[in-house]
Specification:
Length: about 300
């Protein structure tokens, strides 16, 4: 399968999403089955799958109470993610953007993986003993899949808990709370909160002795390209998968929105688990409406054919 063009794709949504929706509304591809919600039929397919790819989105995190900062209610102060998660916003006001990410990091200390995260992690562990694999391609940056115990996670949009130095490029895991002294107690989401206006030298800095460059969150911002090494791994996983699950994603953020439809065109079964149908639903073999924390544990529980 050819995914190479995605390597240079940038993170986009909204306008392209609307275009995608129009395209998807034209209906399923010729020869493709309409999506169904027969769990027994899905379980048969699941029992035979050797390489399962799970494309997981913000909907899984939302069931743990993690805000997306998008949509009508999704504001931090006066802004939404697309106003702050950009290189331009960071270089214009790194203090404000760091307050926003500090808030999101601290908030995650109060959140836990939910039944959907746990079902995926347990399924991966179980299948690995049988010589089968399950990989999560995550669009979330909150690391809840890893915290639930998933081993094989491709974080295509990066992580809240990694930083990247804008001088030397060094990417490191950083789980400090607070990430730096100057951000302690800052980052209130209240629309009336004042900017902290932290001097740039007091924001998180690179700890390499000769560098001391300004750090930024190691996440993919709007307008930025996705990490090509990770996309190469994604491509490999999509190439070998024989079952694809699309979990808690509205299928409008590119390029992830293209992954499952590409797999479906090869005749690989795709099952969508989401609160409601999406623009891509008609292209998939299965659709299960409802909370992922309810539907996924049932879908992925031990099958009677599993002997280990
Ligand atoms: Zn550095």
């Amino acid at each position: 399968m050819v995914l190479r063009p995605f390597v240079s794709w940038r993170l986009v949504s909204r306008r392209c999403g609307a275009r995608w929706a129009k395209w998807a509304e034209r209906g399923p591809c010729v020869g493709m089955a309409r999506s169904g919600s027969d769990m027994a039929e899905f379980r048969k397919v699941f029992s035979k799958a050797k390489h399962i790819v799970v494309i997981a989105g913000a909907g899984v995190s939302a069931e743990s109470g993690v805000p997306t900062f998008r949509g009508a209610a999704g504001y931090w102060r006066k802004w939404q993610a697309q106003d702050l998660a950009t290189p331009e916003a960071f270089f214009r006001n790194p203090s404000r953007v760091w307050e926003y990410y500090h808030y999101r990091r601290e908030l995650m200390l109060t959140k836990s993986p939910n039944a959907a995260h746990v079902a995926l992690a347990e399924c991966e562990t179980r299948l690995s003993r049988q010589g089968r694999s399950l990989v999560v391609i995550s669009q979330s940056i909150d690391e809840l899949h890893c915290r639930a115990g998933s081993q094989h996670v491709l974080e295509i949009h990066g992580s809240l808990f990694k930083t990247r130095c804008i001088s030397c490029g060094d990417v490191v895991v950083n789980q400090k709370s607070p990430i730096c002294a100057a951000l302690e107690g800052k980052g209130s989401p209240d629309p009336n909160a004042e900017d902290a206006n932290i001097p740039v030298e007091l924001l998180p800095r690179c700890e390499k002795s000769t560098c001391n460059g300004l750090l930024r969150p190691s996440v993919v911002w709007f307008g930025e390209t996705l990490n090509s090494d990770i996309l190469t791994q994604v491509e490999k996983e999509l190439d070998i998968c024989d079952l694809c699950l699309v979990v808690g994603t509205s299928s409008i953020v590119y390029p992830a929105a293209m992954f499952a439809p590409q797999v479906a065109t090869r005749g690989i079964p795709v099952a969508e688990f989401n609160l409601r149908t999406t623009p891509a639903t008609g292209r998939f073999r299965f659709h299960f409406s409802g909370r992922c924390g309810t539907t996924l544990p049932l879908a992925l529980e031990r099958h009677e054919s599993e002997v280990i």
